[in-house]
Predict the structure.
Amino acid sequence: MYSIQRGIFCVSMVIVAVWIIDRFLGIFLQKKKQTVLSVTLWAVFMIFQFFLEMHVGTASVWNTLINISMIFLISITSYHQDKKFNLYIVMLLWVVWALLEMLVFYCMGMLPMERQDTHMAGAAISKILMIITVYLLSVYWKKKNNKFIPVSYDMVLLLIPAGSMYIAVNEFTASQHGNSIIAPLVTFSILLCINVIVFEIYAKLAENFMLENEKTVYEQQLYMISRNTEEQKKMMEGFREERHNFINKLIVLKDDMEHREKERALEELNRLMQELPGKSIISNCGNSTVDALINFKNITAEKAGVAFRLKIFIPANLPINQCDLGVVMGNALDNAIEAAEQYDGTDKFVEIIMGVKKEALVLTIKNPFCNEIRKDKQGNLLSTKSDGNRHGYGVKSIRRVAEKYNGEVLIETEKQLFLMTVIMNLEQF
């Protein structure tokens, strides 16, 4: 009966070891499609690990070299990367694991337990510590992917392995006082599997949460594009109407000239010159993308009674993707125009300052506002609109683009003035 329980315990240990190695390598290396060779290597490694777990005390230099060699072969058959880099990662894994095991076995040696029980408890606890280590490394290394997850969730998650270690020590210690060793083996086999399952589920939930946020941001961008398209459509319809009216007025002028109505013709020409469209064309910095965005948004601003103030000194060509520039300026100007329109004062304006300083593009947008500035626990701005799910991601989209160019977004508020500064480094692009 004991051998069966022992076998179950060893199987759980092998499963956890495989999960740890796969997750650790996945932090630094990119996984590729499984092949017959890679699957075979994993299977051989699992069998070898089961043999080591079943035969306590068989650890040797040769076993260590075999383990390292097999993990290295798995890394180059299951993951993309340079072989030298793969070897460095495998050695890092083994060093961290060995140090944790040394620390655990040193502490376990102070407890009144038999050698075999000490080995089983120490091996199990060291694997739980490796699960924690792998998770913390994953959060740090891929922190951009996990930035939507509150830190409090991570702290609560770590209570599970901490509680598991306490239960393990308590169970194995209790077995020294006449109780059977079978119960601790079964208990800890279950705890090991639970830890792996919980961390795996949490990783999947974090990934799904990130994808859901990406989806929401994408929907918000589609909404912004559709709204801009509708505004462009209305603008083109207005141009067609103006063109039609302008042609009719030219016909009248032509008739006046033919009938030598010079004074009336000059009066009508002066009036037409004053009515000619062109007030919306306020930006002519030479950069076609920036000019188009500002001139187009200015049409919306004029209708809302908001005045644009420009101080733009940029080159005609910027090493920034036009779509990225559109996301930043489009979201920033939309938010600024809307806030300025809702301002209850008389001076409704949007000030746009743009220039290149120390190999970085610096965009500053200032506007008055009257609504309360709301932020979440992470300091991100929250939408004041009733449909916050749709409209709350404009600033997040701007931050995402700024981070792409190793930049940042700075937001200041003072005396009903909202100031956003977007910095995008150009040195590496």
Q: What stands out?
A: Residues 386-392 have pLDDT under 50 and may be disordered.
